[in-house]
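Hey, can you fold this one?
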Amino acid sequence: MTESQLVLVTGATGYIGGRLVPRLLARGYRVRVLVRTPARLDHVPWHDDVDIVAGDLSSVDDTAAACEGVHTAFYLVHSMGSGKQFEETEQHNARVMADAAALAEVTRVVYLGGLHPEGVKLSPHMRSRTAVGKILLDGPVPAVVFQAGVVIGSGSASFEMIRHLTENLRVMPAPSWVTNEIEPIAIRDVLHYLASAPALTEPLNRTFDLGSREVLTYAALMYGYAHEAHLPPRHIYALPVPAPRLAGWWVALVTPIPHSMAVPLVQSLQHPAVCSEHDVDAVLPLPPGGLTSYRHAVRLALRRIQLGEVETAWTSASSGVAADPLPSDPDWAGRTVYVDDRSKTAPVRPEAVWKVIEGIGGDNGWYSLPAAWVIRGLADKLVGGAGHNRGRRNPTSLVVGDAVDWWRVEHIDPGRQLRLRAEMRVPGGAWLELTAEPDGDGTRYRQRAIYFPRGLLGKLYWWAIFPFHGIIFPSMAKNILARAAASG
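Sure. Predicted structure:
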């Protein structure tokens, strides 16, 4: 009975894991999640329905403790964009999971890898994902390794790449890989197979290819998106060169995907990605209503975006940038810190000011000199940073861990305070804190830009951008209050 089975989900703060957890709960499983930072889950709807364990997958003790009493362990982590040693890190963590699962007598490990052809030279990230799957398959506990190609769903990195390339470029000279055959799959179908895996009765230890059974080219994916999004016709011209690194830079500049992710995504498209077998049909049922077609998956994703109901996004996972929290004010004593602190009062209800604060970024912008923010974002993209166009998961509400352009929500006190941590490439740590406090019949709005420089370069950076702060931040405070007053 599923009611007696405990399942472990790693990667619960990521795109796939964050969507899988509520679906496992809906099927009656008890769910435990292993996360490094439990606060990242404080505001998810299923927070009180799961057992949250703080720990690191690189630790044998942490992982073994999380596996205790577990029937099925989902290994849903991937270190895309996490540094030059990511392959060693991923393989070490996979071995830890395999050993910990054996010690805890876990029945099955489930992993989601990438769809790829055999006998070709794979990109570093696809090679790493394949190696992780092999480690789990060679481990003491039976493993089910699903292999999926381009995942289509609101907020997925693959979908966002297709969406922004198609929307931004009406005429597109493209590398030769746009003619490669690809078998996409809807996120809802991936989640169906993952959530069904604990119910497998046989001790299977093998890979299963997952796809929509609809083979297209990458160019056809973009043409199909343009049709569903009601865009004018797009014109894509394949050039006789693969150019994965150059294309990775181009994708990073044109889309919200940072260079650290764009390059591996593009590299994964260098070869066809089509299912070589459909053996999953013999052991698991098809999704209700059958597999989702590509066009239908695009329509579903666009609807979620339009309704502001994107459940998780590729930005849900940390970018790999150091994520030390902002020290409390008393801890600043004796440290070098630069602060741009501004406050204004206005005869506006705090609720109206908070609504503007919580809606900052994305399509609403930053209420001051939009061109300056765009230019700074492009500069950040050119040095491999997150850039300014990641947008938001939800246009009106935020939770801890959400990305907001090049910022990430570090703390939120609903109705009162929002603190954002910068994930741009800067020589130091940077935060932006926005607060709305009642002040008589109005509101006292406070805005603090806080910067902890790292070495001499960090100090020079602050003083180089200081003149721009004198222009941007006063107008930002003024315009936020003006927007709140105009909205009532």
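The CA atoms of residues 14 and 317 lie 5 Å apart. Let me know if you want another pass with a different chain boundary.
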